[in-house]
Design a protein that fits this description.
The complex is a heterodimer. Chain A is about 35% helix and about 20% strand. Chain A is built from 10 helices and 8 strands. The termini of chain A are far apart. Chain B is of the alpha/beta class. Classes of the chains: A alpha/beta, B alpha/beta. Chains A and B meet through strand 1 of A and strand 1 and helix 3 of B.
Chain lengths: ~250, ~260
């Protein structure tokens, strides 16, 4: 297993950016790929520094790609860096040239914490043909509600999303994206701590996914919005992707 | 160029190592490149000297900018002070760098060529010795260049650099050096599939004499060796210039940047 820290010029971001990649000992096109996203205030190093991911990933054939999106909410703004296209298109396209990666849906997964859980849901549900599974970990899945609850974020959210009305029924509206899914949608393995400030939103999200009849599991743990929980969660995610731990639905 | 720092585990050495890698990338600077054309890319292994590590070539020279418009990958391994040798202290650096490293590189990076005709090795000082050694002792490299290389035939100059204990730890009994697997002139005599060689040394460099001697021997063995010298010492100013000369010498489509002044 190897850890590659990479910097390069992104055409979608129109600037240099960095990606960390965990490579299996013998990478092949038959291995799995996990696109792993960070939360607010973090960067491409968060997972390597805050969890024991490197250890969990050793002895597997999973390539783990950790990009950075700064404070973008995995969202593109007119005339600025196209973070959503970067995450949902360019990252995998480029990494499939640089490394031995599968281009098969059944071997490609996406996960993320908090803002990255939003990014994972947004990306996976916008490109359901690209991902076999989505792992939102303590995700912040409801921009409109967050906007109402945090009025001090109004100027910032306006710059990202325009207005609450513009969020509704857009790719930033996770509840709406769920209603657009068919039975072939990626499975959703949802995780949240019971003391997490987003716990209530995650209960709602769980209901929405169930109502749509998607493959889904909601795993809860005792704790808040913290790396201690995510360290345990990512260990389970790796086992599921590695097929050491069977994924059972319902 | 895409720049990578790769931490990997060396089974041969039994420890984590780091290599730095430069890969060509699609950008406005190279509008004609596509992912399809960036296949089977030539690979240049760039070896450091004593007191350096895998970062020094990029910090001390313009290598990354120079290859910006040339489809070539640069691999800079960490080599420690081991003289690219299976040392007497039990760490097999030669095997790790000459055998295992290219296997890792091929395994990690599908774009890079594994053909001998597209694999080259270049180094400075200790790394110049390493470059010739790797090319002469394996059948993996078609071109090798040494800049201010420690192209030692006899071991006497070594004692000016480090203590006898140090050298014995690496090479063993120095009386047995000549004719051994660490003697590049012996390797040159025994090499079946000969690489093309390039050698440069500064006229004021303490290694000037040993380079004269080594090149004379290589020519005597009818090697295709290009030997160039110029006023200069054992310094990065010269190696920065010479690395571009090496890029021009290699069988690649080196595209020199525009220089209006």
């Amino acid at each position: 297993m190897a850890v590659s820290r990479m910097s390069f010029y992104s055409e979608k971001l129109e600037m240099s950016t960095s990606i960390n990649v965990i490579l299996p000992e013998h990478p092949t096109e038959s291995g799995k790929t996990l696109l792993l996203l960070h939360g607010m205030g973090e960067d491409e190093n968060a997972w390597l520094n805050q969890s024991r991911l490197t250890d969990y990933a050793s002895q597997t054939d999973i390539t783990i790609i950790m990009p950075r999106v700064d404070r973008s909410y995995y969202t593109s703004r007119v005339g600025e860096s196209q973070y959503f296209e970067y995450i949902s298109e360019e990252v995998l396209q480029r990494c499939r040239v640089w490394f031995h990666l599968s281009n098969k849906r059944e071997r490609t997964f996406i996960a993320g914490t908090s803002m990255g859980g939003f990014g994972a849901l947004k990306t996976g549900l916008t490109h359901p043909d690209q991902f076999q599974g989505i792992f939102p970990l303590s995700a912040m899945p409801d921009i409109e509600r967050k906007w109402r609850e945090n009025p001090e974020r109004d100027a910032w959210y306006r710059s990202l999303f325009g207005s609450p009305e513009q969020v509704r029924h857009s790719i930033n509206d996770i509840a709406y994206l769920i209603t657009q899914q068919s039975k072939q949608a990626p499975f959703i393995w949802q995780f949240c701590g019971d003391k997490d400030p987003f716990y209530d939103m995650n209960l709602t999200l769980s209901d929405q996914i169930e109502q749509q009849g998607l493959q889904h599991k909601f795993v809860q743990a005792a704790g808040g919005h913290e790396w201690r929980l995510w360290d345990g969660a990512i260990q389970q995610v790796i086992k599921i992707i590695d097929e050491k731990q069977p994924f059972t639905i319902r | 160029m895409a720049h990578l720092e790769v931490d990997y585990y060396s089974q041969v050495l039994g420890m984590d190592r780091t290599m730095n890698v430069i890969l060509p990338e699609l950008s406005d600077h190279n509008p004609t490149w596509t992912n399809e054309t960036l296949q089977d890319i030539p690979v240049l292994y760039l070896l450091n000297g004593m007191s350096n590590n895998q970062t020094t070539w990029q910090r001390r020279t313009d290598i990354e900018r120079l290859v910006r418009q040339t489809p070539i990958a640069i691999v800079m391994p960490s080599t420690d002070l081991a003289w690219y040798t299976n040392t007497k202290y039990g760490l097999n650096y030669f095997d790790a760098i000459a055998q295992e490293l290219p296997e890792k590189v091929a395994s990690f990076f599908p774009q890079l060529s594994t053909k001998r005709s597209k694999n080259f090795v270049v180094g400075l000082s200790m790394g110049g010795y390493g470059a010739f050694k790797l090319a002469l002792a394996t059948d993996k490299f078609s071109y090798a260049a040494s800049l201010s290389g420690a192209l030692i035939g006899d071991t006497e100059p070594l004692l000016d650099l480090e203590s006898l204990t140090y050298w014995q730890g690496i090479f063993g009994d120095l009386d047995q050096f000549s004719g051994s697997e660490n003697d590049i002139l012996t390797l040159a005599e025994n090499c079946q599939n000969r690489p093309r060689l390039y050698d440069w040394v500064g006229e004021q460099d303490e290694f000037k004499q040993i380079n004269d001697t080594a090149v004379a021997k290589l020519k005597q063995l009818s090697y295709d060796v290009t030997y160039e010298t110029a006023p200069g010492r054992h310094e990065w100013y010269y190696w920065d210039k010479q690395i571009e000369r090496v890029l021009e010498w290699l069988p690649i489509d080196y595209v020199r940047e525009e220089r209006l002044s």
